Amino acid sequence: MRSWRFHKFGTIRNLRMEEIAIPEPADDECLVKIAYAALNPADRLLIMGLYPTHAQPPFSVGRDGSGTIVKPGKSGRFKKGDRVVFLRSIIGISRDGTLADYVSVPEAHVAHLPDWWSMADGAAGPHALLTSWQALHEVAKVKPDETVLISGASGGIGMGSLLLARLKGARLIALSRSPVKRDKLMSLGADFVFDPDDKTLVKQVKDLGGVDVVIDTVCGDFLSQALIMARPYARICIIGALGGIRCLIDPTRLIFKRLQIHGIQVAMYSDAGVHQAWQEIIGLIQPHGTKVLIDKIFPFEDVPAAFAHLKAGPMGKVLVGPMNQ
Fold first, then answer.
1. Chain centroid to CA 219: how far?
2. List of residues 6+ apart from 97 with CB closer than 8 A
3. I want to staple 223 with a disulfide (CB 3.0 to 4.6 A). Which of 42, 136, 247, 258 is the partner?
């Protein structure tokens, strides 16, 4: 089978398409024929050797995807031909991932494709929605009358957070540098959209009354601004650090506002926990036919171009596929 693999840590240029053997699943695993894979910024960090936990190369990245069961495991939960998506999983982190024709994955990390989703939707949705759900529902416990600010709102996690927060009835403030993306975010349900580089950003948000929840995929210097914009008892959920890992913050703002800062990591779900979260998400989004926005789909042969597009800042998820056509 074909697999995009890297043999040493470094740049995306280290990725090479190779022919390797189709994996043989263990008894508690299933073999999935991949239809689509989705890229994440963390995939690039893993290839660079900067991700906190990872296997030693060679292996392929890709933790998001959709596909068809070729060989089910022993649990009886799936049968051959079932269309599935991947939830929290070790694939693409400590073993071969979805940038391949086939992947072997623990059955406990797989769920049936929602019936109103295409295979492409199935690759784009679960990781973004599960991460956003962990932040909004389980950690921040957002209420309908609260205000949620989303940094990096045009990315996959931003899209997931926008969709879920809107369905929960929160007032939404989205941040994006692009005028075109800001218009799109308004059309997707944001109540206010601002440019994070605008020097009046903090004042504009405070004039709206501040925020109760921050979904932050940027971190860096933005975190210090978030503390200023936050209302008392606000919850700040840090999901990524695209703006850098260093930031100077004023701890007295944490103290006198009683703010909470949480790290969000979907891989920390237990097997039972991720399935419970997924069922709760499905229950919320199914009546609305919700899908995560897909920015662009690249052919399997053009994975390096797909990573370049991801780095440039897409509006939604970047996919690779369809494979096995």
1. 16
2. 37, 59, 60, 61, 62, 63, 65, 91, 103
3. 247
